Amino acid sequence: MSYSIFLKIFTIKVQSSERKLWFGVFYALIIITFEENMPVQIVLGAQWGDEGKGKIVDLLSENADIVARCQGGANAGHSIIIDGEKYILHLLPSGILHPHTQCFIGNGVVIDPEVLLEEIDFLESKGIQVKDRLFVSPQAHLVLPFHKILDRAFENNSPDVKIGTTGRGIGPAYCDKVGRVNLRLHHYYHRTEFEEKYRSRLREVCHRFPEIDALQALDHEQLLADALDKREQILPLLKDVSLELDRAIKAGATILIEGAQGTLLDIDFGTYPYVTSSNSISGGACTGLGIGPTKIDGVIGVLKAYTTRVGEGPFVTELTGELGDEMRELGKEYGATTGRPRRCGWFDAVIARYAVRVNGIDSFALTKLDILDSLPEINICVAYQYKNQILDDFPTDLNILTECQPIYETVRGWQASIAGITDFQKLPQGAKKYIQTIEKLCHTPVSIVSVGPERKDTIFNSRKP
Question: Which residues belong to the active site?
Answer without folding.
Answer: 50, 78
